[in-house]
Amino acid sequence: MSLTSADPIHQRTVELAREQRLVEATGPRGAASFVWGDFVTAPGTTVAGAAGRWSPPADGRAGLVVEATAGEGVRIGGQLVDGTAVLFLHPEDGETAAQFADGAEGVLFSYDQASFALQVWNPAIAADRGFAGIAAYPVDPSWVAPAAIAPVAPGRTVVIAHHRDPRPVEVPVVAEARFHRDGAPHRLVASAGLEPGELLLHFTDATTGGETSGSGRVLRIAEDATVLDFNLAGLLPCSFSPAWNCPLPPAENRLPVPVRAGERTVVDANGETIE
Questions:
Q1: Which of 179, 174, 208 is nearest to 192 (CA)?
Q2: CA–CA distance, 243 with 266 (Å, rounded to integer)
Q3: Is residue 83 a contact partner of residue 67, using CB atoms and an 8 Å limit?
C-alpha cells in the first residue's frame, strides 16, 4: 500500500532531487538555457544566438565549418577562431562544442547523420525569460504508489505527435506500469529512457493545462521499480523554453484523476507561471 504518513528520509530525498533539477535546468545545457539554432544547409549561414558564419563541410564529414574573425570571439577546443574551423558531431572526429563571447555554447544535432543543425545554449536566456524557479506540490506520501512493471508484446507501439509537428509518430512501448489510486486501477505505458534500464512514463492527468503544464509530465523509473513516486514527476523541457519541440503524451497515458504531486509549472520571481 502507499505511504500514509510523512517519512523524513523520503521528504529530504525529494527536496534534494528538486534542488538538483533547478541547478540542472539553468546550467550550460539546462532545459531553460536552450535557444535552439538552425539547420545549416548552405554556405555562410548565420545562426541566431551564435557568432560566425556556418557551412556544411565540402568533404561530407559529420560536422559544420565556421568562419569567423578573432573579434567575433568564437572558440572551438579553447582556441580562438580567426579564419575557419570545424565543429564535429562525434567526439572521435574532433571538437564537439563551440563557445561564444556572450557565454553561449553551440553543439551539433542531426536526425539522419546527413544534415546538421547548430544547437545553441545560453544560461542567460533563462533570466531573460524571467525564469526564477519550478513550482511543485508539497511532498505527498500517498502518491508513492506500489506498482507492477509488466512486459508487453514485442513490436507494440503508441502514436504520439509533437508540439510543432502534428504528424503522428509511432514510438515503441517497452513495458506497462500498473498501480491503484483510491481503489481504482490505472496503467501507464512506458518507453525506453536514455539510460540503460530506465523507463519513461509521460502522462497527463486532471490537473494538466490548469494547475500543471499543458505538456504533461514525465516520471522516470527503473525497469525493476516496485513503486511509482509521483512526487518525482517532472516537467518536460518545453515547459522551460519554447525552443523545445516536445512530444505530447500518448492517449494511453491520460489519467482521469488529478495527480497533485511533483512539479507543476515554471515560474517567475512573483510565482506566476511562465508560458
A1: 174
A2: 15
A3: yes
- Confidence tier at 105 by pLDDT (50, 70, 90): very high
As a whole number of angstroms, the distance between CA 91 and CA 116 comes to 15
pLDDT at 1: 43
Task: Return d(Cα 221, Cα 199) in angstroms, integer.
Answer: 5
Half-sphere exposure of 23 (CA within 13 A, CB side): 6
Rounded Cα gap, residues 108 and 119, in angstroms = 6
Q: Nearest Cα to 148, choosing from 227, 219, 221? A: 227
Cell of 188: 501507464
Q: Does the structure show a pLDDT above 90 at 166?
A: no
